[in-house]
Amino acid sequence: MEAPLKLVLPALEAGIPLITANKALLAEAWDALRPFAEEGLIYHEASVMAGTPALSFLETLRGSQVLELHGILNGTTLYILQEMEKGRTYAEALAEAQRLGYAEADPTLDVEGIDAAHKLTLLARLLVDPGFPFAEVRAQGIARLTPDHLEEAGRRGARVRLVASLYGEGGRWRAEVAPRYLPQDHPLAQARGNALWVRAHPLGEAFVTGPGAGGGATASGLFADLLRLLSGAPGHLPAPRAKPPLAEGHPFPEVLTQ
Predict the structure, then answer these.
(1) pLDDT of 220-241, one tens digit each?
(2) Does residue 21 contact residue 217 with C-beta atoms inside 8 Å?
(3) Cis omega before residue 35 (within 30°)?
(4) In this structure, is residue 243 part of a structural domain?
């Protein structure tokens, strides 16, 4: 992250706001960027779910206490899993995703869950802990999934999805990205694009879904931030302080691939 950080720090130090979609920069260089974010100088709606207003959606939940959050935050892995549900192997589905331009020639960031982990880190800082470290996000990808895992999901009345989760365990927040069995009637299992599902008190359950990648969707998120800046509103402020979880436990079983 050294090169992009060198580009943006002089501007931020001069009081110039930053509009960015670079989730890796924000996740991994937070120690340097956090003071500017807390001043309201960093706008990054497009860093999570592109133009779908995930961050703005979560900002409105600050009147409630978030109990748990789960999301499908990577479109490449969603496409691969949807193709595997049709009978393709992981390798076949990945090759098709690369042919269509959905996956990079080196798909590691996507298929190993690192891209989703970057995004989950930003959500954790926005909602529950302004200093949540990226290093504490456990990431497990989908490369070891086989058609047998998806067949097992069918027997359970479930679907396999790469789920980014923020939940309480042992009195602290846990952040994990892993393949999980989702009940077929759950909103996340039915989503055709990126999606976020949140349970909060006293609000209850809330859900948002939409495109999470693509030039048009990302441009929409960046332009929304420009309008936000021009209106005089601050950037996406992290949580004012760390909040302990009020509930514990993960509702969706993990797919064991070892």
Answers:
(1) 999 999 999 999 999 999 999 9
(2) no
(3) no
(4) no
The verdict on residue 151 lying in a domain is yes
Give the position of tokens 């943006």.
8
Helix (H) or strand (E) holding 25: helix 23-28
d(CA 153, CA 158): 5
- Of the candidates 6, 86, 119, 243, the residue annotated as catalytic is 119
Encoding tokens for residue 2?
A: 């050294």
Residue type, 240: P
Which residue stretches of the chain have pLDDT < 70?
1, 258
Within a domain: 205: yes
Measure Cα distances from 116 to 27, 130, 204 in Å. Answer: 11, 18, 24
Neighbour tally for 126: CB within 10 Å: 24
Query: What would the two tokens of residue 71 be?
Result: 């999301």
Range of the domain at 186: 2-230
119 in catalytic set: yes
Domain at 178, CATH number? 3.30.360.10
- The per-residue pLDDT for 215 is 87
How far apart (Å, rounded) are the C-alpha atoms in residues 62 and 44?
18
pLDDT on residue 183: 96
- Helices 75-84 and 90-99, packing angle to 10 deg: 130
What pTM, to 2 d.p., does this model score?
Answer: 0.96
Q: Are 60 and 206 in contact (CB under 8 A)?
A: no
SS3 177: strand
- Spatial distance between the Cα atoms of 258 and 93, rounded to a whole number of angstroms: 21
Structure tokens that stand for 245 in this block: 């979880």
Q: CA angle at residue 177 from 114 to 58, to 5 degrees?
A: 95
Give the tokens for residue 227.
Answer: 């309008």
Residue 235 lies in a domain: no
